[in-house]
Structure formats: structure tokens, C-alpha cells
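User: Hey, my collaborator sent me this sequence without any context and asked if I could get a structure. I don't really work with proteins. Can you help?
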Amino acid sequence: MKKLVPLLAIVVALPAVVAATPAALAWTPCRTLIKEWDQTDARTECAKVSVPLDYAHPDGRRLDLMVSRLKATAPEKRQGVIVVNPGGPGNSGLDMPVTLSHTTVAGMGVDHDIVGFDPRGVGFSDGKECDIAPEDGPNPDPSAPPAEQYRQGYEQTAKQNARCTAYDPEFIASLSTDVVARDLDQIRIALGEQKISFFGVSWGTALGAVYRSRYDQHVDRMLLDSVMPPDFSLRTMNDGQVDAAEANFSRFAAWLAARDGQYHLGTDAAKIRADVTALAAGLDAHPRQVTADGKPLTFGGGNLRTVLTYQQSHWPAMADTLTALRDGTNPPLVGNEPDFTGFGLEDSHFAGLLMQVSVLCNDQGADPSEPAMWREEQQRQASSPLFHGMAGYQHWCAGWPLPQQPWHLTRGSSPLQLVGHRTETTTPASWARDMRRTIGGSLLTVDNGAHGSLDLVACGSKAVEFFSTGRTATGTCPGEPAVPST
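Assistant: No problem. I've predicted the 3D structure and written it out in C-alpha cell form, which is a compact way to encode the shape of the chain:
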């Protein structure tokens, strides 16, 4: 039988794994342990923490978690530690402390040690992958009718999920937000801290919310940037992202309607929406040949839909693209521009897709049946012909064979700062408001649409102030991209 493939087993001899006690961690420069580590980074240290695979059986099989640390630059002012997580789930957090040290939140590291870690199943914490295999069946037939293509894709995913979980069901079942929250507390214990602070981005906000609900007494301060929905399901994720894209397009259409003298696309936002929708459908049926950077390119409906998801700073170029398509000239945007989807913490090359799928599916449980999901997809296509493709979690959990491990969120008393981004589509700002109603805290809204970007805008200083003083912020702060003036 094939086995799960270990990820990046490229660590030089590590210190012996020891029990998670305050005196036990043997810190070693990460650059001496990990071949890919930036060799100019002499500050970041790494160590291992041993945790149970199954917390119901603490004396059984164990896993080793790799953690990293940047010590406070002003040790005489040290208040404690801030553990950080970049999300995913499945992204490595080992290099997040040094990454943050070059951003607008770098001041967090003056009076706190910044601690990162690879969650279980990622990178150097027993990372595994399980790619699609021939026994999962062929890819959907592109010439088949849409309903048949969807059925084939659903069945292929279900076979892959069954095969991959069967290799090591105990391990795969341990990959959930709740279990990683328990791991986070083991890291706290290993660090010898009565309380820890936490800075989480994207799925890291779910990890933080679950940890605080379990261990509020061990939380000093917590900041969650680009917040996940408290009523987690992949349908919630899909629908929220589509709804956010629709709301942004409504704002764009109104902006265009106010500038008919410049773009000549009409003065009625509803009519502009109908015209753009018809244009996308026409490009689906009859893609056009255009020139981009001097090279020929086929521009179809998918290209236009991608352009329409760009952030607000690109509205003028998006408007020029629509007029070019109307006039039969080459559009300035073609839907494959680099770095147009946002800025913020990016996926690490140590990331793990298996961990991501496993966490999402263990948290949610199995997807509904294929016919039920196809009906959902049809409803989404009918209600959002432009942005139904934003629903990116289609049948990820088809046939998931393991029990659901839902979140159990409660209100806490520890200082909590939530951060939303006004026009973001990955984790819409409405989710941050929903989370605040569920677990409390204060909400700061950044006036941009970039996922997890607090660390790259000026009001990242509010995070530094929060971790130093415990004072939360509310209201709105500026953020790039700025509102276009033309």
C-alpha cells in the first residue's frame, strides 16, 4: 500500500526530543537545522516540542512540533511571548517571526519574544502530502455536460479522500483546529509561560478563537487579522466570498455610472451590471484574441471575471479594460497579472495541502451528497453569473470518512483585537463582525481589500500598541490601496 509522503525531511541532526517542560527546550539557530533557511538570519532559533497524537491517549503515539523564536530586542522590557500563525490551514509559521520583523508590526518584537511554529502535519512538524493518484479515477471530461463534469469531479475527490485517510486514519483525524489549539497550549507549557499572547491571520484567527474559547485563562492578549466566520462550513466560506465579490462589483458599477463622461459605459449601475454580465457570457461562448505584452492571448469570460475581482486601486484600469473590449481594442488587464489579488503574508513553500483539506473537512465533516452540492452550485451560478467561480471549496470534503470535530466558541475576558478589511473577499469583513458578536472583543476595520495585510499598512502600529498596553482599537484606519480619484 502506498503511504503518505513525508514533507521536506531535510533537517540536520536535531537535539533529542524531550518532554514539554519549561527547562527542556534546546534552542538552536534555525539556519543550522534547515537547509533552505536564510543563512544571513542569525537571530531565529528553533526547537522541538513533543505532543500526543491523540489527546485522549496522552501516553500513546507522539508527534514533534518544530517551533521558532525571535527573542525580544529589549529584554529589559520583555512582557512575554506572542505566538504567531499565518493561516492556511497548512502554512508553515516557522519564518513568520522574522517576516514580521520587517513589517509595520515589527515593534511587537521589542518587548515580546515572537514564536512561530509548524502546525502538526505541516513542514517540519511531521508534514505529509497525499497527491491525487490514478486509482482516484480520471479528471472530469471537459467535453461532458456541466452536471456530468461536476459528478465526475465529486467522485474523484471522494476517492482521493478515502484513499488518503486510509493510510493513517489516526494521524489524519488529529488534523483539526481544535487539536492544533491543544498543541498551542502544549507550546505555551514548553515555553514556561503562564499566559501567551497570540497573533493569527486568516485560518490562524480560527485557531486563536478556538484556543481562547478553551484556554482563556492562559491568554494575555490576542489579535486576529482577516477573521474566519464563527459558523464554519465550506458553504459559508463559498457563499461569503461570492457575496463579498458581488458587493465590491456593485460599488464598482456605481463608480462607473458616475463617470459616464469618461468611460461612456452608461449612467445606470444596474444597466452596467447587465451589460458586463452579457459581455462575460459572450466571451464564454466566443473568446477573443488579444495582445498582451506583445504576445497573443485568448481572452474569455474567465479572464474578464478575474479582472473584475481586482482591488479598488485598479478600478480605472478595469474600466479601461471594459471599454477596450467594447471597442475591440487590446485591454490593459487580461486576468493573469502578477500580485493583483492582494498583498500580505504569502503561502510558504513549506505549506501542506493535505493538512489544509484535513483540517477543513474534520472541522466541517463530510460534504452533502453530489446531487445536493450540484444544486447549490446551480443556485450560485444563477444568483451570481459573474462571481460564482469565487466559490473555491467545491466538494473538497466529498465522501470525507472521519467524524466531524466542530468548533466550540465562547466569549472570553482576555483582551481581544479583531481586524477586518473593508472590501476583502477572502475573509469578508462581515465575518469579523460575526465573530465579534460570538466571542467578544473590539473590531478595527482597515480601509482596503488585501487579505491579512495589517502588517503592511501604517495602522499596523495599532497592533504594536495593543500588545504593549492591552488597549484595543475600534473604528476605521487607512489602508492601501487608496480610493482612486479618477
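In plain terms: The mean pLDDT is 92. You can pass these C-alpha cells on to your collaborator as they are.
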